Amino acid sequence: MLHLSSPSFLLVAGMLVGLLHLSRRRRNRLPLPPGPPKLPLLGNLLDMPVSSEWETYWRWSKECNSDIIHLDAAGTSIVVLSSIAATTDLLDKRSTLYSDRPRLPMLNELMGWDFNFVLLYIPRWVPGAGFKRIAHEWRKLSIALVNQPFDETKRQLATGDAPPSFTSSLLTATTPIEHEVIKNAAATTYSAGADTTVAVLGKFMLAMLANPEAQRRAQSEIDVVCGGRLPGFEMFKESDTTMPFVSAIIRELFRWQPTVPFVPHFIETEDEYRGFRIPAQSIVVGNIWAILQDEERYPDAKSFVPDRWLLPSGALNPEMHSDTWQFGFGFRTSCLRGAISCVVVPVDNHCFDPEPPNEFVEGLIRQPVPFKCSIKPRSVEAEMTIRETE
C-alpha cells in the first residue's frame, strides 16, 4: 500500500496530473465542429432562426457537409446532430454525459418552477420587460394546471361521483401518498401527453384526408381483425403481424410530420467526438426532423408513403423496424395506435376545401393549424357501435 508521502505515490500522482494536463491541452487544440461563419462576440446570434429552427439547422448541416455542426449564440455553445449515427453515439451511448436539460429561465424561474437572480427582480412595468408580464400570466396558468384538476377530483370523491382516474385511484390507495406528489405527477403526465397526442391525431386526420386509399386499406385490415367491434388496446399487442399496414401508417405518421422536431440536451463537461471538441456547458440538439427527412433513407421523404415500411409481401420490413426508437414507440404510442384505429374503423372523412391544409403551428410541439372537415359514420352499424361506447 502506497503511503501518501512515499516517492512512489508522488511519482504516480505526478504522472496522473501530467496526463490530465496533456489530455486537456490536446482537447483544447481540437477544432470545433464546422458551422456557419461567426461574428466577433455575437457569434451566430443574428443568424439564429426564430421559427422552424430544425429546417435551418438541417440546411446549415448540408452546407457544411457535416452531420454535426457548432453554433455560438453570443457565448452560448450549441451543437446540432443531424444523423442517426451521431445522435445515437452521443445522446444514447454517452447518455450519462448528455442526459441533462438546458436551463430555461422563462419556464423555470419566471414561471415559478425555480428561483434565480437579476432578471427575476426587474419590475414588470420596466420597458423591455414584457417577457416578465407574459411569464407572470403563464405562471398563473401553470399553477391552475396543477391545482384545479386535483381540487376538482377531491371534491368529486367527497360527493361520491368521482369517475375512475389516475388522481382518484392514488387518493384512495390503501398506502397513503403525499398529496403534493399526486398533484405534481398528474399535472406532469397530462401536460407531457395532452398536446402531443392532440397534435399527432390532428396530423393523422390530415394524412387520411389527403390519402383516402390508405384509410380504406387500414379500415379493411382492422375489419378483418376486429369484425364489427371498435378496436381495444388488447388487440394491438400483436398488431405488427396482424395489422401491418396500420402499423406502417403509424410509423409513417411519426416520420412524415414529427410532433417534436428536436429536444435539446445539455453537457456539463467537455467531450470529444470524431476529432471535434464538444465544449463544456453546450446545448446539444438531436435534429429529429433532419433524420426523418433524410432522402437517402426515406426517398420522397416529404410525401406520406406507409408502404415504405412494408416488404413486397405486405409484412413490416424488419430492417426499417429499428427506426422506431425515434418515434417514441412505447406505452404512449400504443395508446395512440388504439386512438387512431378507433378513428379509422367506423368513419369516412371529407375535407371542405379541395386540398387539406399543409400549414402548422411551429413550436416545441408542432401541430396543424385548425381546419374544417366532416366526419361521418360509414354505416348505420358503425354509428350504433360508436353510440354504444358513450
From TrEMBL:
The keyword Nuclease belongs to this UniProt entry's keyword annotation:
no
Q: Name one Pfam family in it.
A: p450
Q: Which UniProt keywords apply?
A: Heme, Iron, Metal-binding, Monooxygenase, Oxidoreductase
Q: Which GO terms describe its molecular function?
A: heme binding; iron ion binding; monooxygenase activity; oxidoreductase activity, acting on paired donors, with incorporation or reduction of molecular oxygen
Q: Per the entry, which co-factors are needed?
A: heme
**What InterPro entries does the database record attribute to this sequence?**
Cyt_P450, Cyt_P450_sf, Cytochrome_P450_fung
SUPFAM superfamilies reported for this sequence: Cytochrome P450 (SSF48264)
Q: Which family does it belong to?
A: Belongs to the cytochrome P450 family.
Record protein name field = Cytochrome p450
Q: What is the lineage of its organism?
A: Eukaryota, Fungi, Dikarya, Basidiomycota, Agaricomycotina
